[in-house]
Amino acid sequence: MTYQGSCHCGRIAFEVEGDIDEVMECNCSHCSRKGFLLWFVPREQLHQKTPESDQATYTFNKHEIKHQFCPDCGCQPFGLGQMPDGPPLAAINVRCLEGVEPAELTIKQVDGRSF
Ligand SMILES: [Zn+2]
């Protein structure tokens, strides 16, 4: 399955391959404020259709995850990071994907506030 994703205004557009088996809802200070439902995929399953130079980047804490957001509309469709053992991954905000109904997903609650 290939999902189409974008920010609200379309300045950031992308495709993601794979099947959404489970998404993560985290209660940390960052995820809770932005309301993320995150789907983690190997980075190569994310295909960006718009230039990375059009994205702004936010980092905090250990600055290991590059949270990519649109400087025009403010949506944050994905973050880029690495697995603990090295391989690059992408954390897709499934709220920015077309045809995904959050109420139909299996949502895993993660207690990031306690990490
Ligand atoms: Zn935008």
TrEMBL record:
<dbReference type="InterPro" id="IPR011057">
    <property type="entry name" value="Mss4-like_sf"/>
</dbReference>
<comment type="similarity">
    <text>Belongs to the Gfa family.</text>
</comment>
<dbReference type="Pfam" id="PF04828">
    <property type="entry name" value="GFA"/>
</dbReference>
<keyword id="KW-0479">Metal-binding</keyword>
<dbReference type="InterPro" id="IPR052355">
    <property type="entry name" value="CENP-V-like"/>
</dbReference>
<feature type="domain" description="CENP-V/GFA">
    <location>
        <begin position="3"/>
        <end position="115"/>
    </location>
</feature>
<keyword id="KW-0862">Zinc</keyword>
<protein>
    <submittedName>
        <fullName>GFA family protein</fullName>
    </submittedName>
</protein>
<dbReference type="InterPro" id="IPR006913">
    <property type="entry name" value="CENP-V/GFA"/>
</dbReference>
